[in-house]
Amino acid sequence: MSWFDRLRQGLSRTRDVLAADAGANWEMDWDDLEFALIGADVGARLAAEVVREARAERERGTPFRDALEKALMDQLEPDRLRQKLRRVGFDLDVKRNVVEARGSVVMMIGVNGVGKTTTIAKLGQYYRGHGRSVMFAAGDTFRAAGSAQLAVWGERLGVPTVTGPDGSDPGAVAFDAAQSRAARGVDLLFVDTAGRLHTQHNLMEELRKVKRVIGKADPGEPGEVWLVLDAVTGQNGLEQARKFHEAVGVTGVIVTKLDGTGKGGILLPIARELGLPIKFVGVGEQADDLQPYDAAAFVRALLDLPAKAA
Fold first, then answer.
1. Most-buried pick from 196, 248, 278, 292 (CB within 10 A)?
2. Which residue has the higher pLDDT, 222 or 18?
3. Is the pLDDT of residue 21 over 90?
4. How many domains does the chain have?
5. What is the pLDDT of residue 82?
6. Residue 222, preceding bond cis, omega within 30 degrees?
7. Gap between the Cα atoms of 269 and 83, Å rounded
8. In the predicted model, what is the mean pLDDT of the chain?
9. Handedness of CA 93, 98, 99, 100 (dihedral sign)
10. What does each C-alpha distance from 168 to 143, 144, 192, 225 come to in angstroms?
């Protein structure tokens, strides 16, 4: 099965939410569409905007589903979104998704339970498959067996993993790993981090510390800070993104578990309200079920349209 087919299959729950009132030709009442978009966690304001633009396009004679595709693409494709916002006097720095990591250290952040550690393993496999050498740093030392979990993944994949005892200083693990990466000349180091401490303030302070320590061990790093979000959390995930971005400056978002929810519309407010590039999306448990995000493929899979020819 191709990646596009897996994506289309993985988005079936969200598509069911959107298409519940649509017939075979995907023609539906505009109010029903707006409610469906809200149900998919697009958010009320953005849902109304998408409907308004799709309706205008439909009135120009464009078939319903094609009109909806255009309206969604105007929200999700960075260049189109940037131009759209500038037309109304709002200059949001909407960044394009560049899969090649800036720098050599990628700090991975997110709350516990979003699949951060397994996402790191999948990223390691992805980049190794594309000719890059990879290391892991098991910096989630506060979670019981967190370090061991990533170490097991590293052993399976043949990826060197720097670990520390449970409860040890995650900054020390990150420091050692960053120095080791530079000494070995490894292309990419993925640093796992804690997702839960006793208070949100403590968590953010710990993440700031880890980021500073990486910079001391390897000046200019981390080149990337990627936030892992669970699509099931919907709008709560958007609030998480805001908090993490304020604390450590997120440079990209990875959305996991799109196959387990009808809330795949959360990608729209992530792109629109935060201006952050969506780096990868996940639609399953297999390693190759995490792939680089492509707005056109996402929208066409969501609307059950065929993949565009290369």
1. 278
2. 222
3. no
4. 2
5. 60
6. yes
7. 17
8. 88
9. negative
10. 11, 11, 14, 22
CB burial of residue 129 (10 Å; 0-12, 13-18, 19+): exposed
pLDDT tens per residue across span 195-207 = 887 678 898 999 9
pLDDT tens, position by position, 180-226: 999 999 999 999 998 887 678 898 999 999 999 999 999 999 999 99
226 shares its domain with 259: yes
In a domain, 308, yes or no: no
Range 106-114 average pLDDT: 92
Residue-range definition of the domain harbouring residue 63: 3-87
DSSP, residue by residue, the chain: --HHHHHHHHTHHHHHHHTTT--TT----HHHHHHHHHHTT--HHHHHHHHHHHHHHHHTT--HHHHHHHHHHHHHSHHHHHHHHHHTT----PPP---SPSSSEEEEE--TTS-HHHHHHHHHHHHHHTT--EEEE---TTSTTHHHHHHHHHHHHT--EE---TTS-HHHHHHHHHHHHHHHT-SEEEE---S--SSHHHHHHHHHHHHHHHHHHSTT--SEEEEEEEGGGTHHHHHHHHHHHHHH---EEEEE-GGG-S-GGGHHHIIIII---EEEEE-SSSGGGEEE--HHHHHHHHTTPPPPP-
**Within a domain: 304:** no
